[in-house]
């Protein structure tokens, strides 16, 4: 595997945040910001639980989803995945990286435009393509920088998406194992999940 070198990022600020998630789970997170991230975005790392230094920490790369994470939209599975990640990482000890790449990298307004196309029958990937964007434009170089800045070089990655693991490995973060997330199905997202499995290569036992 060819490693892609990255500029060095540094920790900018760390501050404690007491959290209460929508599922009622409460925990204390250590919010960390960074200088020098390659895309210039304001990504955030939350340190959760107490990581055992003898084993790789549990890490989730979670792409921002305002509609799902904040408003509880059932068109996707992002909100439940975020709740699950906070609970599981708090138990195991590790890091939640909250990445500012809404709509698989196309932005909030464009994502809502894509929803209107999905309502005419396009799947989530074809809707992005119809708007002139990549089917999935997310990159995880900044996530790798954040982990390096935190002194993390090997992780257990909480994801069903093999592309996340491949991109981290390409930037020098060893992925010891991929830990699957649950499949959060609602009446409104079943076709979305099917597309993620069929088009995005996600490892989902989709109903």
TrEMBL record:
Cofactor annotation remark: Binds 1 zinc ion per subunit.
Binding-site positions, Zn(2+): 65, 76, 78
Active site residues of this protein: 136 (proton acceptor), 138 (nucleophile)
InterPro entries named in the record: GTP_cyclohydro_II, RibA, RibA-like_sf
Required cofactor(s): Zn(2+)
First-tier enzyme category under EC: hydrolase
Name of the featured protein: GTP cyclohydrolase-2
Source species of the chain: Nocardioides iriomotensis
Lineage: Bacteria, Bacillati, Actinomycetota, Actinomycetes, Propionibacteriales
